[in-house]
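Appendix B. Chain record.
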Amino acid sequence: MDAIITAGGTFKPEDPLFQLTGVEKKALVPLGGRPMVNYVLGALRASGLVDHIVVVGLTSGEVNLEDDQLHFVDSVGGLVDNIFAGLYKLQEINPLVNKFLLVSSDIPLITPESIQGFVESCGNQEADIYYAVVEEKTMEARFPNSKRTFVPFKNGRYSGGDILLVDVAAAAGNIDLARSLTGSRKNYLEQARLIGFSFIIKFLLRLMTVQEAGKQAAAKAKLNGEAVDIPFAELGMDVDKLHQYEMIKSYLEKGKVETA
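Structure tokens predicted for this chain:
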């Protein structure tokens, strides 16, 4: 299995994290004396599941790791375009790639065990896409006052995780839809048109479990997709705001997580 890490995000000058660290690229925010992305790279490699890793948005000099299966590609624009830039690079390196892990660079508490657990939870891997979700009680038990955004469903309140298992053929066949959904993420009427009003109504009335919502949303894109409820809160604990940075920094300094 191969992996793509999205690391093209940059801070605006007024962002509190930029003002604190002076680092423009989010993936390079220092934690425990290392760039944040290095924790993700270390966990992927230590999981024993991943061969080639493509990092989108950084250079080898910025990461400074010796790994002959670690590759880099420039950021080409928005998130979707960067994902496909990473995929094209991955296919160039390994033309036989079938499934790949898509991981964000800003989840430094990720561990090898959490990656292994997520992949195991994907079962037979026959679906086109598996998307990790974390229930509120799981997140708050591990990271009290995390201040994540949780969406209510019939079976609980969930936040999205920052790791997916994706089928290459399915991804390649849905680039236009991905761009449409990403481009309209702040236009709820447009999202409703793309996904379907019946889906939106059921969601608002909390008539679906998170798993049912995942399947229906994927089906609208003509995909077989599954939302995977995981017990690994660290896969959803990204560095998005200043207080989350301070919380994660404290965990790392106290040695509460592996730093391989």
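Further analysis of this model is presented in Appendix C.
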